[in-house]
């Protein structure tokens, strides 16, 4: 049986020091949610360890006493993966923010989990290197959180997800053991638990030291923005580019409604009258980039682009990206409330799924859907817009948002591209996985966490959360906080 | 308690048909080892299923009766990972060799496990695509076996291992359940058990359908061979090339002894007097390849290459690769017996480790070491040469071979680069992993296979195999069969 939390507090203070334990109600409430603010719960107690040993001691204490714990990085997650447990310990890694080593010769960085994503690139840049995974929240999100969520970013079409860039981890298991997975070398014998740990959303333990691959900064980067009259024309440009064997670093698309929002918010000055804009970025050796860039430009024109703008330096690139990067937060300018959805479809299913999304929106009174997405890898981020003062609108928006995920599954895709499952989509896992699939995952989780104390009720569906019937769809709630939306 | 095998035979015949079950002693013996022929054991019974359903029914029968089973693909493995169990069922996937789908639009191939590696590329080539992982045994080794071993190849420096190219699996778990991991999409929610399954050496189940990424055939491929007087000079050329930001598809190095062997065997006509030859292959868009190729050539000359040959078409490339590809088998021409070792060190530790290997060889009477290796990623394949008719020579060779792995561990590397652990290196796992690390792996394995029937005694050390004391080093036996050596 779990002990009451109050009994743990003195021992937590011994481990983390007085200033490393937060019990004050007001201060605890600042941790009540991650970026998905409509799931909230005040943590029982918050600890701020500064070392692997402190993390291990905290977790061992939890294991001994049966008290659940939830790990948290910078709290920018978008699936309530870091939603605190009201009777548990919230383990925040924000004080573990040391860059342990930049190993240029082996092209590796070793960092603590609280280091911000962009800090890795800042530390590597003087040596001509960078860290590739770039979630839009990269200024603030932590590398530890990126590990938990297997974070992507605009450039994962070419460079892959976080899992493709982590070569070694030191972790504290849910039983408080310190275990090493992988290292600096490319491959390790035994089970590749490193790959399984990345994206496990804190349910298998806490990463306390992280070794990542550094990539050479590209010799050249060029970006183009192409404006089309319709989404279909933009989509056929994407297909033509990929089919031609061009591998852009990023291929992003925005529809008319998201362009309208971006114009209202940041005056990004995209070509007037565009039904779709496409941003294509190429990087690599100069000769290669130039050749591919000319090809991509030509293919955009052939697909019907009525205007193509190009950027060759950082300032021009920033102008092109400005609208795209602000799009999520900008939607707040044209709609009182909205839901941000995250799903994936095979790239070839994009045109059909976008048409079906438009039909869903047309059929639901007062609901509009703005589409902003990573077109190259079929990762959609539909924004479901509604007026929360209108009776029934939030329910209709939730229904449209849910049906979009159904469309993704129906077309062989996935209920999340890069935001994770967390609490938010746990009850939808049975729509994607068979009972045998889920049982296998649960067996795996239990092998690490036999007592179920590590981030309970996240990632996999539970009867308490989802009801006894597998596949019960939980209501989706509106996301209205603009602060959270900036993290996309 | 396990049932006697004889009780299972009629039921296996019901599942796989009479011609799908081999009980004849003579025919069973043809399966007694994989490519590492010094580990041998006649399987209790051999089954040749033709479908997922048959595999699942066989495994369920094993699970119900407590009989162990061992999966086998083409049997080209080099760590005795497919060593049969004398009281168990050998499940051979060689009849499951259908290419299910070449999905050009999504750049995926779906195949059965018995399909030969090179067949995937043959099926994709008419569409302008290929399958990247290329173990030297690619003409015969199976994709299912590649999954089990996470196979690499000469080109994994640029393209990664098998795990980087598999996006979906249908597997039969050790309890006989059919489970799907991943799919055609880039990322899936939940635990990335797909990554952990790849390289699990048959201990977590049998892959029955495999979805792999197809890559565009490169526009251009160019290869150079550079001859150096010393290994140090060759090594500094490798460092210079990588430091310059050139990313070759392959960087292979051979020392004087392995060049001598290759000349004796295939008359490859490498530059006379070379103490080291370096093969560098570049692929990609033509403009890029040309620019990088000129750079690599210049860097080789600057590092002291006294001759550089270049190849621009397939015939010229084959001439350059001829010596390298024959090197392992060729060693049989200059030595009565030899051990092939497989280890990894961080690339920067290569010069030091090679010097230490030379010292080990000099100190052991009658033992020579030929070095052939993937220089770009530090994957060594030292060949320990000895005369097995000389008293004590095989023991001294085994000692040198073992000490080479110690060197790899000491320098932050690994006891296997791409051949796997199998039976051969299971007892050395404690030298690389802590008891907590190994316990975590064992917990993971037990979650899939609670009864320990799936490829028992492979991958992790057991008291029966390694003695009660963790870390006991087992003797290494000489590899003398040339047939096996061709599979490198």
TrEMBL record, chains A, B:
FAD-binding PCMH-type domain boundaries: 38-217
Requisite cofactors: FAD
Organism placement in taxonomy: Bacteria, Bacillati, Actinomycetota, Actinomycetes, Streptosporangiales
Protein keywords: FAD, Flavoprotein, Oxidoreductase
Protein name: FAD-linked oxidase C-terminal domain-containing protein
Organism listed in the record: Streptomonospora wellingtoniae
Alphabetical list of InterPro entries matching this protein: FAD-bd_oxidored_4_C, FAD-bd_PCMH, FAD-bd_PCMH-like_sf, FAD-bd_PCMH_sub2, FAD-linked_Oxase-like_C, FAD-linked_OxidoTrans_Type4, Oxid_FAD_bind_N, Vanillyl_alc_oxidase_C-sub2
Record Pfam families: FAD-oxidase_C, FAD_binding_4
